[in-house]
Write a structure and sequence with these properties.
By secondary structure, the chain is an alpha+beta fold. Helices cover about 30% and strands about 35% of the residues. Strands 2-3-4-5-6-7-1-8 form an 8-stranded antiparallel sheet. Helix 1 crosses helix 4.
């Protein structure tokens, strides 16, 4: 057997193992991360609800555009590249303590909801993000579990937020089995 067919077989075996492993993982997961920040809840609320400003501090975003108002609440488009975007909307807005957002769209490879809870913590705040995610494709379940470890996207968000607020904070991973919020879907 020459080198090229052997490499092709090894790659095919690797992809098959990844797809098999992903197909054995649950389609739905719940993960939560939290971070302590030295800003009051009202300040933190104003930062996390200024969606158009996300591209100024969130890593991985090229730009953010306003979307249509849905059920009286804002929506926005996040662009990771000029040609790759996702539509998000607010589902619940209870200033300055609770925000629930979700991905908007049909026939998506994954769907999800983030719940932001802001609690006073001394002179600062404690921000907890809980994610409910449904991953329809086995390869996405594999990547989410083995590469991102379920908390990866939340951690990037929280670390970018801490950096933006000039905070030396580190996310803490929580394990809380909760029922997902009703998204009307």
């Amino acid at each position: 057997m020459t080198l090229l067919p052997a490499l092709f077989l090894a790659l095919a075996a690797l992809v098959a193992a990844m797809l098999y492993s992903g197909s054995r993982l649950p389609r739905t997961h719940v993960a939560a991360s939290r971070i302590r920040l030295n800003v009051p809840p009202e300040t933190l609320w104003s930062v996390i609800t200024d969606f158009p400003a996300y591209s100024q501090w969130r890593r991985g975003l090229v730009r953010v555009e306003h979307g249509p108002v849905i059920d009286g609440l804002p929506s926005w488009y996040e662009y990771c590249t000029e040609d790759s975007w996702m539509h998000f909307r607010v589902m619940e807005w209870a200033s300055p303590s609770r925000l629930v957002t979700c991905i908007v769209g049909k026939d998506l490879l994954f769907t999800g909801t983030w719940e932001y809870q802001i609690e006073p913590a001394g002179e600062g705040s404690l921000l907890t993000i809980t994610e409910w995610e449904n991953l329809h494709a086995p390869w996405l379940r594999f990547l989410d579990y083995f590469v991102l470890r379920y908390h990866g996207v939340m951690d990037v968000y929280l670390l970018s937020l801490a950096l933006h607020l000039d905070e030396p904070a580190k996310p803490e991973h929580l394990s809380i089995p909760l029922d997902p919020p009703d998204t009307g879907a």
